[in-house]
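User:
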Amino acid sequence: MNILWFSWKDISHPQAGGAEIILHELSKRLVTDGHSVTILTARYQGSEMHDTIDGIKIIRVGNNRYAHSAAALWYYLRNLRNRFDVVVEAVNTAPYFSCFFKGKAKSILFYHQLAREIWFHEAPAPLSHLGYYVLEPIATFLMGKARATTVTISNSTKQDLLRFGFKPERIAIISEGIEIAPIKKLSDIQKYSQPTMLSLGSVRAMKQTQDQVEAFALAKQKVPELRLIVAGDHSGAYGQQVLDQIEKSRFKDHITVLGRVSLEKKIELMQKSHFIAVTSIKEGWGLIVTEAASQGTPAVVYDVDGLRDSVKNGVTGIVTRPTPKTLADGVVALLADKQKYQEVQENAWRWSKEITFAKSYKDFMGVIENGK
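Assistant: Predicted structure:
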């Protein structure tokens, strides 16, 4: 088959994340199986218009986050229409509406998540209100009317799509996958000598890192030896707010700020920390949760879309109401019972071994070949 992906970012983009990882891993496997794959994506500083990575052809047009969608669709209509058997659109806030111009190709929509509440944390007013109340609802409603086969990675996102008129029989949930190989045995890792809370990933408003710092301070009053490690890019304005918050904390000497870390350091932190805290406004799945679980570290997370899918409450981690106080209570509860902690740790680790790109690819091919 000749397959085209529409995606805002490809794997080489400086801001590439979990959505781009799964796109790339699926594409690599398609190429290995003899299919031709092209990704139509956005330019970034220093990028070439035409590129090839792991046998995947990449075409980059437009670099503005929102204008790119129109530029990519226009490029497709002028140069690529009717040259592909399958057109997959990875929808990320600003749709391409390719499903209405697919020509002879089979059309698939790939939603990791809807932005929804994220608008209020990542965009200034009045754009945030316009995006939440007008732009995204209208765009999502129109996409649902296209009657394209739709793929997502969690039941939370499926339920979001159903609210906008998507038909349940046309939505398929496929497995997530992780790049990091799970450890072979839990006994292979050594935790820090003090109970350690890990905050890992970009320090952005929608990740609500400030809630984690506040929850740490509350939990430390009941677990005095607790310490916090914050690892991730904190170069933006929100990152500075978090650094200011830490500087003012009476427990600042027990908080380590590392900034962006290498993959090797990321793995080390996940193996040595006792748990990871994730407090996003919402996620498609919560990939960092599964990655940490694969390294023997359970999670304490907010009860929001994506995170409630990637953590089984009381079984593979703790799911709390989305407040720093309840997160702190979850932290204390997880650390209070050593036997229960080990049980949750093992359950999370074992479940992570089932979440693979091999399964993700098998699920995805089932959608392409059978429409579900």
